[in-house]
Amino acid sequence: MNGMSMNIGETARSSGVSAKMIRHYEEIGLIPKANRTDSGYRQYNGNDVHTLRFIRQARNLGFSIRQIEELLGLWRNQRRPSRKVKALALAHVEELDARIRELEAMKQTLQELAAHCHGDERPECPILDGLAAPGTVADPGAARRDVPRRLARAPKRASCH
Amino acid sequence: MNGMSMNIGETARSSGVSAKMIRHYEEIGLIPKANRTDSGYRQYNGNDVHTLRFIRQARNLGFSIRQIEELLGLWRNQRRPSRKVKALALAHVEELDARIRELEAMKQTLQELAAHCHGDERPECPILDGLAAPGTVADPGAARRDVPRRLARAPKRASCH
DNA sequence: ATCCGGGTTCCCATGATGGGAAGGTCAAGG
DNA sequence: CCTTGACCTTCCCATCATGGGAACCCGGAT
Question: Which domain holds residue A46?
């Protein structure tokens, strides 16, 4: 079953990428259009599974589809300078770091507010007061944008074969 | 201009919430439907601005709209137990923490891969190798979901008056 | 021939947000 | 009085990666 040609379902199972996403990746041009059987079924081989695993791992590291396009290009190019790959990776580390800092700031503020709240049956609450007061919460302002979202829903593991 | 009744533009400016989002919040029922002038213009007062500031600050702390609905309910209820507010806040801290841990894990993995990459003109690259190898990247798996996304685009500061 | 587990396409939803078009309103100035 | 420009209105579309589901077609085993 793994030797040569398989349908999208098995490909999904052995790559860990859902069939839905495989079709999607094809549609947006991240992977080339699959060959079809006479009846229109997409056919894949071990090579395709390899590529899809690469994509999945990159997604798990938080790379966006755009970034993965670049990574795939470098991966396939035997003459790439590893410099470029490293630059891409470190740039992404920066993005992750920016997001982490932002979340840390939120957590920090929220914990400070919560620390002053009795948390009992009385209605007085510094947390609500803080939210209502202007200027309590720092404005995440700039220095953000561009970090790929993801991580919203679990990829719903395809139980990787 | 601030004394009584203002249009959506000024309300946006003084609350820091864009006119677009004010309409959106009304549509999804987060805030009540605004009164209209004869010609259909929405009218707001200082109270509404206060509420919108509350919402904006909660968003800046990463609360989702759903969570803000609850916070608003507690804020308006003079007989709330502060216990409930604190519980909400601490639950959100948990979510933030889960996200932070996830991002830290990605960063960690990526840094390890990058540390072994020469980053020169040669094509050998442990980063690409790691992405291609099965099982290099931990699967964020479960323990995620539900944390509100946001932070993707900067709220495009309404230069808060 | 029938059935079931595939496959296919197509449309819709998520969450919070912005962009932009087409058209109505209002106040100030000629 | 009419124009101008800033403002308002609604409506539709896009983002990003992903899943859900309908309606329909295929292929192999009974």
Answer: 8-76
